[in-house]
Amino acid sequence: MTTIRRLGFAVAIVLAVVAAGTGCTVIPVTGPYMVGDDGTGGDPLNKPFQRMIAIPPQPNWGPEDTIKGLQAAMAAYADDPSILPQYLTPEARSKWSAAGPVKVIEDAFEIAYPTPRDGTETVLQVTLKAQWVASIGTDDAYAPTAGAWDGGTFELVKTQQGGYLVNKLPAGLLLTNSDVVRAYRPANLYYLNADMPDRLVVDRVRLRMKPTESFARTILERLLEEPTTALRDAVTTSFPEDTTIESIRWNEERVLVNLSGPLDPLDLSAEAALRAQIRHSFADNDVAKGRIIEIQVDGETYAVDRPDPADPWLDDGGDTAYFVDNGAVHFMGKEGPAGAVPGAAGEQRAGYTDFALSKEETALIAAKTSTGISMAKLAQDGRWQEVIQGTELTPPTFHRDGSLWTYDNENGVLLRYDPTSGRGPERVAAPKLAGLDVARLRIARDGVRVSVTTGENTVQIGALISTPEGLVLGNFRSLTTTEMGDEIVDVTWSDDEHLLVLVESKAGQILSEINVGDGATVGVPLKDRLASLAALDDRVLGEVKTDKETKIVELNQDRQTWVPKVESNAGSPLFPLG
Amino acid sequence: MWRRSLQLQVVTSTLVISVIVVVVLGTFLFGQINKSVVDSSQQSSVSDAFADRLQIADALAPDTDEQTKTTDTAKSGAANPLDEVMDAVTGSGEDGSKKRYDVLILNPATPGQSRASGSVVRSSVPPNLRAHLQRYIRNHEYGKPVGNVQQIKFPGENQPRLTFVVGGVVHVPTSGQNYEVYHFFPFNEEEELLTNVRLAIVVVGLGLVLLLAAIAYLVARQVVSPVRLARQAAERLAAGKLDERLKVRGEDDLARLANSFNEMAANLALKIHQLEELSQVQRQFVSDVSHELRTPLTTVRMAADLLYDAREDFDPMASRSAELMQAQLERFEAMLADLLEISRYDAGAATLDLDPVDVRDVVLRAIGDSEALAERHATRFELRLPNEPCMAEIDDRRVERILRNLLFNAIEHGEGRDVVVTVGADRDAVAIAVRDHGIGLRNGEDTLVFDRFWRADPSRARTIGGTGLGLAISREDATLHGGWLQAWGQPGEGSQFRLTLPRTAGADLKGSPLSLVPPEIEMRRTWRGAMTPVLLPASADGGGHDDD
């Protein structure tokens, strides 16, 4: 054997041993190496949920089981409408309809018999007693309701096979709170400010989850419809009428929304607003957050929306905090006072209270005096100037268009002063406020929603409706009413959908953050008594007045503790707008 | 092609065997992978389902302490325990994430105690599975889960999905309630995985088969190529190229085969050379002996002539001896002449004196020379000559000798019957056939007749004193012309010798104008074949080949 052959043989043996050794290792130890992302960059487009499965009435069920079964069938009606009619007599089937608002009651309901029974009756009257929780309107708005529900009278008919059928029942669907929690999800939809369509306005709805479609599609389908009655005519949409959804598909990094309808792929005038509406309606509901959204019209790409932190569609008009020291307005930096504002507003002056700031772009400040409302520019040459006269005016509030608003209780009119018009204050129609004692009026940063405190203990939410005749303050509905004797100290917008309400009760102060869309209330713990509030998104500033001094405290990020921000000579915290 | 190509046979066999092996291995491998994937999936699914059922049972039947707590919390608005556990099991809670499976809890006896996640509905449950669980409930057997793999079409989906459904009963002893819990595990990922694995196995198997075929082709080529070279070398060796050798590469078996072949070829060449030398010596010896015998024979002849001429003066006994001696001396002389002639052929010294000659004249001359003998044997000649001249470039002396030999032969073996001489010609060749009707030739003798000193019946005496070299010399003469001398004969049918010569000297013969088998024999054979084919003898007669 030659040397080369021997060498070749040795190499072959070595290779065979290496190959055999590698073969023994099922998963070889390797790395580190680059790995592909598994697509967890964005939120899913679906939300898991559970549903009630309805059971047809059973012959061995008594009246209580039959009513419970009927209620369960109502809970499952949207998914499976075939079971509920099996509970009804032909007469009831012909009369009853699921249309109308959905009544939501507490889980623990009680079934009572108005008349004594001996078990042999063929027709039985049954009353369902429960605590009313809320109602979900046909516009999907969730309205919390308190008190006992007393509309639940049912008539049961005994069948020949045993068991009961329902002959009479209240109209519409009756769900328990658990049914709603189980099958509905709160969702925020974004529409455009009808008066200034450069700003999105949030609308809150309760959407019924559908097992056969993604939550993203449910949201988008609802977005194509009208807003809730609270925002009707106050907002608009960039979707043309009759726009429909062809499909929503997604992969690891991209969501493809294919629309159909009168959208012109060549007309991109509404493209940015449409993108913003879809993006925020998805992202605010934790759907497709962080993913690229491609909008198609009949399969052709119309717009591609990439996640962008600099978003002008939710502009709050500035995020600088201010405070007032003896009538002088000061900037508040991260560490504390950061100097007085320029012009007259930065000078100490008595008699000026209830300050309000416009958005930083227009740099205006307003304050209430004993004779009316004065306004000054936040500039070196800024001088206080009385722009609205009156002795019973509510504290001033700025609209994002730069106008100054107040309610004149003396004349019962809502006044709007536009500094750029060169005219005096003009009246804005607010028919629902006529005759009411308006204590406070604050326009939200979206320029649409308005909180109005009437009397001492009621907060109503209205909206600025855009009509051909001009703006009208309407669409009012009650948000909260405190108990008699309690007094609302201050109200301020924290963001577009949350209102902070500070109430002075007999037991002490209560600070609540209320969602203006569905009335969901979260309590905020207080440490000191607060005199006034200012809030912008997560930042909440409070004015604490003691005998010796006035200081400003800030609510911590954990929303549990307050930390001093400016220790002395600081009151009336302020943020632009809101 | 198949029988001749070893390479094709090897490649085809390898293909067939490797296809069988790959199919068997692939089937086994896929079965194993399928089993392990499906088993592990089912195992984990059953574990998940079991854990969920435990959780559900735990939630629906809290112990006494927890019951008190639940009562307390129920007052403050806590959710239904079934809802809570469904949230936990299906990931429907606030921070829950979607589970890979859907769950259906069915309690048909109690209102509002049935739940589902995903798009599962009551009709999604396979009926036989449901029947199984209901039998369990009737028999109070609660611990046995049942599995079922089935294509299920869920609401809102276009295609049915392969789903593994695990069903189990959760029995709540405190309330006596029975909950049928069904878990729907999608198996489409496993199905996709196994489809990919199957595709991979098919592709790899196909590749392997092709690779094996290619390897077999290369290996076969490696082995067959030297064998083919050896075959070609052997063929060339057989054709007389004794210096043909194989190239020897390496030391393997094929190299040793080549070595052996080369040694064999060398030995063969040596032996042939030695035999040629020996043959040359023998020929030289015969030639020398013949030459040496001529001189004393001439003297003896002269003396014998004297004695012969004076025989009448002798007494009858001596006279007869003189006659015999004379006759035998003539034969001796003829034999010596023939030996010298054939020695010339052996020595390669024979040359042709070519002239364009009409073959008919040559035939007539040869017949003229043979007539005396024919008369003695009472034999008549029948001549069949063409009318046109049959010109050919021949050495007429040699051709005449051939014809004389053939005629003497025919007379000697013709037993007094007619001898037919036929001349034929075509564009390229002329042919003369001499036919006798004597005892004929036995099978195989048609080639032996041209051997030197061969005789059909050694016991039979030569009546006309032939030397036994006549036909051998004739054949050499014919060969020298580039022609053929062939014989046909059958016992009892006589024989025929045919001489075919090219018209132009040196031209290759492609056929003969005359048939080797006499026409009447051919006709008879055809006639017999047409009438009674079954009675034909098993083997052909000694007529041999016909080059026509």
From TrEMBL, chain A:
Organism superkingdom: Bacteria
SMART domains on file: Germane (SM00909)
SUPFAM superfamilies associated with the record: 3-carboxy-cis,cis-mucoante lactonizing enzyme
Name of the protein in its database record: GerMN domain-containing protein
Domain GerMN: 216-306
